[in-house]
Amino acid sequence: MPARSYRIGQIVPSSNVTMETEVPAILRAREAVAPERFTFHSSRMRMTRVTPEQLRAMDADSDRCAVELSDARVDVLGYACLVAVMSNGLGYHRAAEARLHARTVENGAPAPVVTSAGALVEGLHTLGAKRIALVAPYLRPLTRTVVDYLTHEGVEVLDFAALEIPDNLDVAAHDPALLPAIAQRLAHSGADAVVLSACVQLPSLSAVEEAEQLLGKPVVSAAICTVHRLLRALDLPAHAPGAGHLLSGAYAESAPPV
Q: Where in the chain is the domain with CATH 3.40.50.12500?
């Protein structure tokens, strides 16, 4: 019997070039050790600079993207802008996921929806991480928004680095090899885990396992957490080689998102 293929829909900012690289890379690595196969389908929302004004305008366009992707009968949708969701208010990922799922239902092609914001929250809870340190590319006020959002979700941020990169393409151009040293400079000794990239545009996948060795604790990114939650939304074991402790197989059968 041929392996089942799943269609992964991604709602992405127009200037995002990392989510469509790292999510497929993780799932292609999974294909080397598991039978399922994946195809990837995107719809884009206009955004070039990571400012509150552009983020709000972009989020308003996400309904259109959900409908377009449901036209392709995708099996699951991932909304790939963490800070756009978090900047809309505490707990907003739940409302966004419910609203976008409703658009797929109305279009006759119901599909679960995962936001990278909700996935980061759930990934940290899955790890049992109550205290973290994190790296984000945003300007400091937006990074504080992320910190406050996680705090509201029961995750204490002991320290953070705001790289203060306003242009979204410049975020994607940041060298991931620099991230482990940036994380090491944080006050992380009391942290249960470290978020190497609290942004799906800041590349980090190639540095996650090095960072875990350097820091001696689980290291995640928004993209890794998103893949974990996408797989569980499909009721598939959430594991993939080369993507850190969360996808090591230790949490492969964690409860699917509600």
A: 5-117+225-244, 118-222
Q: Scanning the structure block, which residue is given the tokens 């799932």?
A: 27
| Residue from 14, 118, 120, 98 nearest 58 by CA | 14
Residue 225 is labelled as binding a ligand = no
Check pLDDT > 70 for residue 88. yes
Residue 123 pLDDT exceeds 80: yes
CATH number given to 5-117+225-244:
3.40.50.12500
Separation between Cα atoms, residue 21 and residue 10, nearest integer Å = 11
Q: What are phi and psi of 218, to 5 degrees?
A: -60, 140
Q: Please write the tens of the pLDDT for every residue from 151-198.
A: 999 999 999 999 999 888 999 999 999 999 999 999 999 999 999 999
Kindly name the residue from 8, 136, 199, 205 that is annotated as catalytic: 199
Catalytic annotation on 225? no
Q: Any binding-site annotation on 81?
A: yes
pTM: 0.95
Q: Who's near 59: CB < 8 A, 6+ residues apart?
A: 45, 81, 84, 85, 88, 96
| 184 labeled binding residue | no
The confidence band for 256, taking pLDDT boundaries of 50, 70 and 90, is confident
Domain range 118-222, CATH class: alpha beta
Q: Catalytic residue at 199?
A: yes
